[in-house]
Amino acid sequence: MSEIIIPQKSSAYIKILLMSGIPFLYLLFILYKYFMKIEDYNFYLMIFCCLALIICLAFIINAILQLRIRKPAIIINDKGLEDNVSIAKAGFIDWKNITGCFVAKMSGVDQLFIMVKDHSEIMAKQAK
Questions:
Q1: SS3 for 62?
Q2: Residue 40 neighbours by CB under 8 Å, 6+ apart
C-alpha cells in the first residue's frame, strides 16, 4: 500500500482568524471609548468586554499557531494512520488498534471518524 497524505486545509483557520479578529478590534474600541470618558463606571460592561477580549485572543492565537503548522492532516500507510488535526491529538494509531472508520457530514463538512480498541492509549498521548 502506498502512503496516502491528506493535507490540512488552512481556509478554516483563516475564517476563525477573521471571525475572531473583527470582534476583538471592536471590543478594543469599546474599551478605549469607555476609558476615555469614565463618568459613569459600569463594572459589568468592563468585565464582559475583558472576558470577551480574552476569548477572542485565545481563538486568534490558536488560529495563528495552527496556520504555522505545515504537517499533513492525516497520513495513511502500511503501519497505520497518523492524525495531526483532531481534537484528541491522537498522533500515530497502529492498524491493530483500529476497529473501524467511517465518514459522516457534520455542519456540511465531511469528517473522518476512527474507532479504536483502546481509548486510554489515545488519551495518554493527549495528556503528554
A1: helix
A2: none
Burial class of residue 56 (count of CB atoms within 10 Å of its CB; 0-12, 13-18, 19+)? buried
Residue 55 is predicted with a pLDDT of 93
- What confidence tens digit (pLDDT) does each residue in 18-61 have? 899 899 998 888 888 877 876 677 778 888 888 999 999 999 99
- Report the number of secondary-structure helices (H) and strands (E) in the chain: 3, 6
Element spanning 26, H or E: helix 11-36
Under 8 Å between Cβ of 79 and 94: yes
The pTM of this model reads 0.59
**CA 41/CA 62 separation, integer angstroms:** 33
Q: Strands, DSSP E only, in 54-97?
A: 74-76, 80-83, 91-94
